[in-house]
């Protein structure tokens, strides 16, 4: 559902029928023979069409936090899908609930892989949107209406599916449904030998009940490591430049000289790469760890962003078209960039915040993570086309600089969470990290 939203926007905004009806000024500029390659889509209203989704999601992420705690993850997903069928107002509610749901229900040894299935579905949604954009681009004049209307299909799937799935044992016990919680834990683990995990959940829930104001508790010094990590992962995820490329892949490929059908087809190719590369993360995340995938991707993304920027700086002027061979290389580099993101910052940007917070602040902390993502997704979506107009090829160097910062952040401040039980993060991760342990030590002193 969320992936379809991401993928469909850029395709629709490159369709002539849509531009002619809603953004005639952009349509006229697009078809001027001498119009600046980098500026033909520079329009704040057009960018707001895409980015407005994230303003709604920003507000609803905090509503979703309350819903998750009070009524459970399952009901929150049901509510999100029903509202989505009327509009995208509560879309972020599903984005709040699903990663928490997966992290709580998964066995520790495969928690990363199961959680990343969420991101895999997002990439499939983007890919399906790219296919739809390609197929409806020649249906005049209502192809864009069909593309937008089909968003109801994944929303319906989520709504129906939410009646079939189980609630997490943690959520049941958190809401004092103790017998049901224990029974659900035995069911999803496939064994009656769950005493140790059950006691961990009971202890976490008891600690959580002592926290009456989880949002206020997030402001305590002992919550700072998880909060900083969660927000930083979301901000960095956007400043890789991925959503700028995925939103506007059709527009980007038109900018470098592909015609409309060819640009949409190129976006389909990147969509396929996105899906297949996310599968790589599912396979490797619990074997090689989170940090390895993030650092490898930083190197690969840095090289590709610099290479794309260099090719465009040398070869693409205001009014010319790229030579066919150069344009193909740009598509290849975009695919390499997308692949590295898809097995690293894409899925891990959601996995790591969902597994690091203690239960007492888990839904509140994750709400902050989601809202941070939505703020910066909005900023990038709203600014990208204008930035491309003013910075030209330099926009890729802008994102490359941020990737360097991200790599340093992972090296020095991000601990490894592979194979650590979700309710033992404080003892086994934060209290042993060279930097973050000082925040935990002060909490211990206050207790004494």
Q: How do the helices and strands follow one another from N- to C-terminus?
A: HHHHHHHHHHHHHHHHHHHHHHHH
Main β sheet profile: none
For the residues shown, what is the average pLDDT?
83
Portion in beta strands = under 5%
Helix % is over 70%
Question: Can you describe what's shown?
Answer:
The protein is 77% helix and 0% strand. It is built from 24 helices and no strands. Helix 7 (111-136) runs antiparallel to helix 8 (143-149). Keywords: Membrane, Sugar transport, Symport, Transmembrane, Transmembrane helix, Transport. Residues 1-418 form the Major facilitator superfamily (MFS) profile domain. One of its GO terms (molecular function) is symporter activity. It is found in: Membrane.
Brief rundown of the structure:
By secondary structure, the protein is an all-alpha fold.
Keywords:
448 residues, mainly alpha, 24 helices, Sugar transport protein
């Amino acid at each position: 559902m969320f992936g379809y939203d991401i993928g469909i926007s850029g395709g629709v905004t490159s369709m002539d029928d849509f531009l002619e009806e809603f953004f005639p000024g952009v349509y006229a500029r697009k078809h001027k023979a001498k119009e600046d390659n980098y500026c033909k889509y520079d329009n704040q209203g057009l960018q707001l069409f895409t980015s407005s989704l994230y303003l709604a999601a920003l507000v609803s992420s905090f509503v979703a936090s309350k819903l998750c705690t009070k009524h459970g993850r399952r009901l929150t997903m049901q509510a999100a899908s029903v509202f989505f069928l009327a509009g995208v107002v509560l879309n972020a509610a599903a984005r709040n609930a699903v990663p928490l749901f997966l992290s709580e229900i998964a066995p520790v040894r495969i928690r990363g892989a199961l959680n990343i299935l969420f991101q895999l579905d997002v990439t499939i949604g983007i890919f399906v949107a790219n296919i739809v954009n390609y197929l409806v681009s020649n249906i005049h004049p209502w192809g864009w209406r069909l593309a937008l209307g089909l968003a109801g299909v994944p929303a319906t799937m989520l709504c129906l599916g939410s009646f079939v799935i189980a609630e997490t044992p943690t959520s049941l016990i958190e809401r004092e449904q103790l017998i049901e919680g224990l029974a659900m834990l035995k069911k999803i683990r496939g064994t009656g030998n769950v005493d140790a995990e059950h006691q961990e959940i009971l202890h976490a829930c008891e600690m959580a009940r002592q926290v009456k104001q989880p949002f206020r508790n997030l402001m305590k010094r002992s919550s700072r490591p998880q909060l900083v990590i969660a927000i930083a992962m979301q901000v960095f995820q956007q400043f890789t430049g991925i959503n700028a490329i995925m939103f506007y892949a059709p527009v980007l490929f038109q900018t470098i000289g592909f015609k409309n059908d060819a640009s949409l087809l190129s976006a389909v190719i990147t969509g396929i790469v996105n899906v297949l590369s996310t599968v790589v993360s599912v396979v490797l995340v619990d074997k090689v760890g989170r940090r390895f995938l993030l650092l490898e991707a930083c190197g690969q993304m840095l090289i590709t962003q610099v290479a794309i920027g260099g090719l465009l700086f040398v070869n693409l002027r205001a009014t010319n078209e790229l030579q066919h061979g150069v344009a193909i290389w740009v598509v290849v580099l975009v695919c390499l960039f997308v692949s590295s993101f898809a097995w690293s910052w894409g899925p891990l940007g959601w996995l790591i915040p969902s597994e690091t917070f203690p239960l007492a602040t888990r839904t509140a902390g994750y709400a902050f993570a989601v809202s941070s993502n939505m703020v910066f997704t909005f900023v990038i979506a709203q600014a990208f086309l204008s930035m491309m107009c003013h910075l030209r090829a330099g926009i890729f160097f802008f994102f490359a600089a941020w990737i360097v910062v991200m790599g340093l952040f992972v090296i020095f401040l991000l601990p490894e969470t592979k194979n650590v039980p979700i309710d033992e993060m404080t003892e086994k991760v934060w209290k042993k990290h060279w930097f973050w342990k000082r925040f935990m030590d002060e909490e211990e002193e206050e207790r004494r």
